[in-house]
Write a structure and sequence with these properties.
Elements (H helix, E strand, L loop, with lengths): L1 H19 L5 H8 L5 E5 L5 H14 L15 H13 L5 H4 L12 E5 L2 H15 L1 H6 L1 E4 H12 L10 E3 L1 H15 L8 H13 L4 H6 L5 H20 L1 E3 H14 L1 H10 L2 E4 L7 H10 L6 E5 L14 H9 L4 E5 L7 H11 L20 E6 L2 H17 L7 E5 L5 H11 L3 E3 L9 H14 L4 H7 L9 H14 L3 H6 L11 H20 L2 H11 L2 H10 L3 H24 L5 H10 L13 E5 H4 L4 E6 L16 H15 L2 E10 L1 E4 L2 E4 L4 H5 L5 E5 L1 H8 L57 H6 L6 H6 L7 H8 L40 E4 L3 E11 L2 E8 L3 E6 L5 E4 L4
Parallel strand pairs: 1-7, 1-8, 2-3, 2-6, 4-5, 6-7, 9-14, 9-17, 10-12, 10-13, 11-12, 13-14
Antiparallel strand pairs: 15-16, 18-19, 18-22, 19-20, 20-21
The protein binds a DNA duplex (15 and 10 nucleotides) through helix 8, helix 13, helix 29 and helix 30.
Amino acid sequence: MATDLTQEFCALRDTYIEKQFGRLNDMQRQAVFTTDGPLLILAGAGSGKTTVLVNRIANLIRFGSAHGSRQTPRPATEDDVKALRNAIMTGTAVPGWLDGMLRQNAVRSWNVMAITFTNKAAGELKERLRRMLGGEEGDEVFASTFHSTCVRILRRWAEEIGYPRSFTIYDTDDSQRVMKAVYKDLNVDDKFLPIKAAINQMSRWKDQLVSPEQALASPAKDTKGALTARIYAAYEKRLKEAGAFDFDDLIYQTVQLLAEHPDVREFYQNKYRYLLVDEYQDTSVAQFRLVSLLTGPERNICVVGDDDQSIYRFRGATIENILNFEKLYPGTKTIRLEQNYRSTSNILNAANCVIQHNTERKGKTLWTDNGEGDKVQVYTAENEQDEASHIADVIGQHLKAGGHLADHAILYRMNAQSAPIESYFTRAGIPHKIVGGQRFNDRKEVKDIHSYMSIVANPRDDVRLRRIINEPARKIGATTVEVIADLAGQEGVSMLDIISHADQYAKLSRAVMPLLKFWQIYQRLQDSLETRTLDEFAADVIELTGYKAMLEADAAKGHEDAADRLQNLGQLVNNVKNYCDQHGEEATLEGYLEDIALISDIDSYNESADQVVLMTIHSAKGLEFPYVFLIGMEEGVFPSEMSKYSEADLEEERRLAYVGITRAKKELYISNSVSRMLYGRTQRNEPSRFLREIEPEYIEETRSPVLEQRSRFGGWGDSYSDTVPGGASGYSGPSGWGRSASGYGNGYSAGSRSGYLNREYNAGESRGFGSAYANRGSSGGHGSGYGRSGGSTGYGAGYGSQYGSGNYSGAAQKKTEKHISFTGTPAQKPASAGPKHYEPGDIVEHKVFGRGQVVAVKPAAGDQIVEINFEKVGIKKTMANFAPLTKITAEE
DNA sequence: TAGAACCCCCTTTTT
DNA sequence: GGGGGTTCTA
C-alpha cells in the first residue's frame, strides 16, 4: 500500500517538477533533467542555451535527480500525495514539510561549477541564477571564466609549482616586452623571426600542452622551429623568475598543477561535483584537459557548444573537442537544440544559407516560429562615409518610429572599421559606444601606474619594473638598467633587490643617487599600501612617483593630451574605488590587478545606456540586438585578406559571418562599400562571397544613389539603371547632410535582384562626376546638375532638397514614404550655401533625432557646438557643420 | 641622457 | 592614417 502511494507520489512529483520547467521545449527539458553523467548539448544560435544552463543548475539544486526517479527519501503518505496534487492543481508552491520529498540527491549550490568564456557570460549566468534561486543559493554557485578559475586555483597552490602566490598576470604587451628581452639575450633578429610569430607559436604550444622541453626535443621542421623552441624555453624561464603568468600560462600551469598533484586534483573533484562548460566549441586542448582533470569519477560533466559558432580556431580552439568528448566520455548523452527563439525566419534562413557552404560541420538546421519578418537589407555604399551615413539614416527612421538607440548594434570584422562610423556618429552627435579596441587599461599612463602597483604586490616583477623605472624620467638610463639586470642575474635576486642597496656596487656608482631615490619612493609606496585604503594607495602612486607632476608640467607646456592623461588617471583611481566598493573587506591589491588583467571591455558594456553599440563580431558572440548592422561585407575585409588562401580559415570566417547574422532579432542590415579607405589606402573591394551565398529570396538590395548616378553616366560599365523600376525614387526627405546621399534607398531595389553582387567592378573613373560630388557639401548649385539626368525621375529633386533648408515640404518630407514619384521637374535650388549658422531659438531638423530647438551655441574651431533640445530625445550637442542638421527657417 | 624629428611599421579576431 | 619605436642631435 505504501509502495503504491510512493509510486503515485513519484509520478505526481514528475508532473510537478515538469511544471516548474514548463516554459522550456522538449529538448531543453531533456537537457535539464539529464542530471548525471556526461552530457553534450549542441545548441544552435539563439536556442536558449543560457536558459538551459541556468535551469539545469536550478534543477540540480532544487530537485537533484528527482525527476524520473522512482525513489523518495521516505515512503510517501496520503497527505503527501494530497498536498502535492493540490499544489499542481492550484499552481502554488508545496508546503514546507513536503519540500524534502521533492528532492532526490539534490546538489548543494557550492558543489556546482560553471565555466564560461567571458566574464560577461559568467556574470549573466550568476545574475539569472540569483533571480531563479534567490540570492544566497544563486551566489554560491561558482560561475567563472576559464582564466579566472585558473587564477583562483593558482592563488592557492602556486607555490606547489614554484611560483609566488602573489604572482603577476602578464598581458600581451608584457609578453612582448619579455620577448624583446629574450631576443636580445639569444641574439635573435626579429627580421628573421618576427616577435609576433614567436609569440603565436609559443601560444599554440601552450594551448596544446607542449612544454618547452618537449618543444626543444621534438624534431624541428626548420631552423626557425628550433629557434622558437629555444625562445619559448628562455621566455618561460624569465616569467618564472618574475613570478608571472601570461594568459596561456594560467591554463597551462593549472593543468600541470592538477596533473602532477593528485591531492590538489582530488580536492577540486570533491568540491565541484557538477561541472558545466559553456562555449565548448571554443576550448583548446589545454582547456579540454583542464575540464577533464576537474571532472571527478562521477563524470558529471555537461558541455554546451555549437560547432557552427567556433570562431577562435586561430587562438588554439579546436572543434575536435566536441568530437573527442564522446570518445573520452563513453555513454555521453547528446542533445541538439535547434529551435531558435531569437530571430525572424528571413534572418535565420540567411544564416543557414551561409553556413551551409561549410563542409566541416556536424550539421544542424535552425528553425523558428517567429514569423518571416522583414527581408535582410543589403546596401552597397560608395565609400565608408556613405556606409556610415546610411546607417545613421536607418537608425534615424527607427528613432522616429519610437525605437531606441540601444537596440542597434554595428558589427564589423576588425576594430579599425569602427573609426569612420565613430567619427561620423561623433560629429552627428549620435550617442554611441565602442566596445573593444584600445582598452582603457591599455593606455600608456594607466599601464604605467598599474605597473607601479604590481611591483609593490610582486617585487620580483622585473618586466614591469623596467617599464617604469625611468617613467617619469629620473636619470636612470638604459645602461644603468642593464647593469642592474646583470647584477640581479649573477646574484640570482630581483632587480629591486639590487636597487635597494645600490650603493654597494661600484658599477652603479654613477647612478646611486637616483636609484636610492627610486628605492625610497618604492618604500613609501609599500608603506602607503599598508596604511591606506586601496584607492588612496592608487592616488599615492600617481602622486609619489612624480607621475602627476610630470603630466601637469606637460599640460602647462601645452601638450594637448596631458590633460586627458591626467583625467584617465583620475578615472583609474575611481575604478579602484569601485573595485573596493564591490569587494568590501575582501578587496586586495592582487585582486584588483587580477581584475584589470582579466576583465575586458565587453564585460563593462552596459546595455541600459541608450547608445548605439559598436563592436567586432567576436565581441558580439553571445549577445543579441533587435537591429544589427553588419558592415564591410567585402572580399578582403570579410572574409579577411589573410584567410583567402586557406579553406579552413575561410570556413572560420564563414562561421564568423554566421555568428554576426544570428545576432539580429528583428532586422538585419548588411552593407558593403565599393571603395574603402583602410590603413591609409583606398581600396576597391568586391562584395563578400558570403553575400552571394544568401538566397535572393531572403534579401532586398539597395545601392547608394551616387553609384546609381555613376552607372547612369556610364562610368561603371553596364546599365544598372535598367533594373530600376521607373519612377520609383524612394526619396526619403531632406537630410541636409553634406557628405551623404541619404535615404534614397529602397525604391531602387524594389522587385529585382540586380545581380550586381556578381559583377566585376572595374576601376572606372568617375569623371565629370567627382567634382560635383566633392562640392556637394558646401555649394548649392549642383542640384540642377543631377536633375539633368532626365529619366531618373525625382533624383535631382531629391538631391537638391538636401540643401533646400526647409523650403521643401509636403509628402516628400515624410521619411516613411518610400515610393513617392517625382515627375521630371528640375531640382530645387538650395536656399543657401556655405557654413551653417545657428542661433538659440532656431528650429532644426536632425536626421536622426528629428525636430528640436536650439538652446545654446558655442563657437569651436571654425565651427559651432550647437545644443539642441529635441522633441523626442531631449538635449544633445552636435557640431553645426557636420551634424545632419537642417534649419527650419519658416515656421509652418 | 633627454627631447624631438623622423621613419617605419602595421593592421584579424581576444582571455 | 596613426601610433610607436628608433635614431639623431643638443
